[in-house]
Recover the amino acids of this structure.
């Protein structure tokens, strides 16, 4: 009896030392059309502290950068745990997470990032960008959870195009200060009325420095759950070269015209789950990207990812591959998602110099309404032009070696009511860039064109695809 009691006491002690943050993830892997490596729960120690324990004040006035840093460092020295942010407005500069940390926002907690750009400058940050609002590098077991809001205060960073604003909105931006280009087409948050200095010599240079709301690099075991992410300076939720990433039940939102306002971007993620999220943003909704191979990274390419039960409202694309696909995208299942009012539905985009090979991509049971352009599009001549800048280009060697190769993609049971063009596809002359693509058992109501498929450069096999023109909507 004494031995059994001792074993029970040890078990209770061990349970008190760690806390596995787990959902019912196994159910998302039942009946998939291809075998996909499964995520595992993130394990966070049971230690808990509050930001108020470290002098944090949620009055919207006090700057809490130092309090967040001290709280995270203290938890890290204990082996990790949960940092709780209670109700209030927590003004802060950039936050760096560490191993075994759960950054937890309670209901009515708003982490609001300061408009003081000097707080985000770091000489070591790659590509000359400022620090992300929330970042982690080479960390294991990190989480951002809860029911609160993380606000990137992006209007202090993002340029604004005149043709994407109403007159009322345009006047609101002008009232903030800033600088308008000579042609009157673009506003930069430069020399603002907020009293904070600029951090570059020109508006265009400062524009190139803005960074993401959440950027996680070379991390293993990541959970992002429940929180609302809004108003990013650039991309909102952006894990890069990470392994075992779960994004579950978050809301991502920003103005529909926010420059580069991507929602959830997986850049070179291996083993991932994107489920139960709501996205309403200014650029791509849920996007997979893959860049050049990175030595010693936990992940290269995007593979073993399930995207299920998400709703995307405004976005350039509901679900997007590209434009960078260099290290490949493979073993991916996208199912039971809704796109309502996006620019395109399923978007596959790349170009010479940034292409790579796809494989074992299965997309099914997608519902779309009020799609501005194409329900399904394959594009191999995509160009990226920064606001006010020139189009980016690759050198000839990169263009020759990084050729788009969209293949082994299976699209089934897509229902779309309202799009300009049902299916559009075009590859590159002389190259086999779009091939072995199957579109089956789909129903699409379009306004302008049923299909625009360049059969010389793109090979799509359509089976049981119903395409109907809605004449009532032809004036749109």
């Amino acid at each position: 009896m004494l031995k059994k009691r001792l074993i029970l006491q040890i078990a209770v002690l061990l349970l008190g030392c760690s806390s596995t943050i787990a959902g019912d993830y196994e159910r998302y892997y039942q009946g998939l059309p291809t075998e996909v490596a499964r995520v595992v729960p993130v394990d966070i120690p049971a230690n808990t502290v509050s930001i108020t324990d470290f002098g944090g004040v949620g009055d919207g006035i006090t700057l809490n950068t130092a309090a967040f840093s001290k709280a995270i460092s203290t938890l890290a020295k204990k082996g990790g745990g949960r940092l709780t942010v209670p109700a209030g407005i927590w003004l802060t500069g950039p936050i760096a997470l560490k191993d075994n940390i759960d950054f937890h926002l309670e209901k009515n907690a708003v982490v609001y990032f300061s408009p003081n750009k000097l707080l985000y400058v770091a000489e070591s940050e790659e590509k000359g960008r400022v620090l992300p609002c929330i970042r982690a590098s080479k960390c294991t077991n990190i989480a951002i959870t809860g029911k609160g809001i993380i606000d990137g205060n992006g209007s202090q960073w993002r340029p604004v195009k005149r043709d994407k604003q109403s007159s009322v909105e345009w006047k609101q931006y002008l009232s903030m200060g800033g600088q308008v280009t000579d042609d009157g087409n673009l506003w930069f948050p430069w020399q603002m009325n907020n009293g904070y200095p600029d951090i570059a010599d020109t508006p265009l240079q400062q524009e190139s420095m803005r960074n993401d709301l959440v950027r996680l690099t070379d991390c293993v075991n990541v959970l992002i759950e429940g929180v609302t992410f809004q108003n990013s300076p650039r991309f909102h939720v952006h894990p890069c070269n990470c392994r075992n990433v779960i994004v579950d039940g978050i809301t991502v939102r920003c103005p529909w015209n926010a420059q580069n306002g991507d929602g959830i971007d997986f850049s070179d993620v291996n083993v991932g789950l994107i489920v139960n999220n709501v996205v309403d943003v200014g650029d791509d909704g849920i996007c997979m990207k893959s860049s050049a191979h990175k030595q010693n990274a936990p992940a290269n390419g995007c593979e073993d990812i399930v995207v299920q039960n998400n709703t995307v409202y405004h976005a350039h694309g509901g679900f997007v591959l590209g434009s960078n696909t260099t290290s490949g995208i493979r073993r991916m299942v996208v199912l039971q998602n809704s796109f309502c009012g996006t620019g395109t539905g399923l978007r596959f985009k790349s170009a010479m110099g940034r292409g790579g090979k796809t494989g074992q991509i299965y997309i099914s049971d997608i519902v779309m309404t009020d799609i501005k352009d194409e329900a399904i599009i394959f594009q191999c001549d995509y160009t990226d032009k920064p606001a006010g800048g020139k189009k980016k280009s690759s050198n000839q060697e990169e263009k020759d070696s990084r050729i788009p190769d969209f293949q082994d993609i299976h699209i089934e049971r897509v229902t779309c009511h309202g799009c300009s063009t049902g299916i559009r596809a075009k590859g590159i002359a002389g190259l086999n860039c779009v091939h072995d693509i199957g579109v089956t058992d789909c129903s699409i109501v379009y306004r302008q064109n049923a299909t625009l498929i360049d059969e010389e450069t793109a090979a799509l096999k359509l089976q049981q695809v119903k395409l109907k023109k809605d004449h009532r909507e032809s004036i749109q």
User: Anything to note?
Assistant: DSSP finds five helices and 35 strands in the chain.
